[in-house]
Write a structure and sequence with these properties.
Blueprint (H helix, E strand, L loop, with lengths): L1 H21 L6 H21 L13 H16 L3 H11 L3 H25 L5 H10 L3 H14 L2 H25 L1
Length: 180
């Protein structure tokens, strides 16, 4: 379930956050977005082309380390930690409830873990904190709406929608990288 996935992903993501913090300012945001965009688009293209294949390879749990490190790293450097995690979760072929629960708890944890690094790097401003506090009351509404929507979407369309959205995110990352 989600807790098994999180036990593998979070330690790796913490390592990725540390690595991203050390390399902050060394690697360009553009290079990170370009690499991540290419990986995302390639994964989605492969997945969509093999959609009708009888055997779609399921990623083993060892991929959690690569995905966790990648997500923590890209989240720290370019606020783009979603694609490595989504690639892993889609590759695990998890039920949609486990997929969503893992994503929510994963990003809540790594975003909290990044705070000390961001504060240390001088990236956390009073304005950012005030915006966060202003939006905080909307969180329960978002959770409620998300749960209602999740229960209405069957498994196959959920996976297809997640795959297409990953592809769109990859294209957006490529676009951002191209614009400099």
């Amino acid at each position: 379930g989600a807790s098994d996935e999180l036990k593998r992903l979070i330690p790796a993501a913490l390592l990725g956050i540390l690595l991203g913090s050390v390399l902050f300012g060394v690697l360009s945001d553009r290079a990170v977005k370009l690499a991540l965009g290419l990986i995302s688009v390639a994964f989605v293209a492969d997945r969509l082309l093999r959609r009708n294949a009888r055997s779609t390879r399921v990623l083993g749990p060892r991929w959690a380390w690569l995905s966790g490190i990648g997500s923590g790293f890209t989240s720290t450097l370019a606020h783009a930690g979603g694609p490595p995690l989504i690639i892993y979760l889609l590759g695990r072929q998890l039920p949609r409830q486990t997929f969503v629960a893992t994503s929510v708890f994963f990003f809540a944890t790594i975003n909290a873990a990044k705070l000390p690094f961001y504060i240390g790097l001088g990236l956390f401003s009073r304005e950012t904190l005030m915006t966060s506090l202003l939006l905080l009351p909307l969180v329960p509404l978002g959770v409620w709406m998300g749960m209602r929507l999740l229960h209405r979407i069957p498994e196959r369309p959920f996976t297809l929608i997640s795959t297409v959205l990953l592809g769109l995110a990859g294209l957006q990352l490529l676009w951002d990288a191209a614009r400099g």
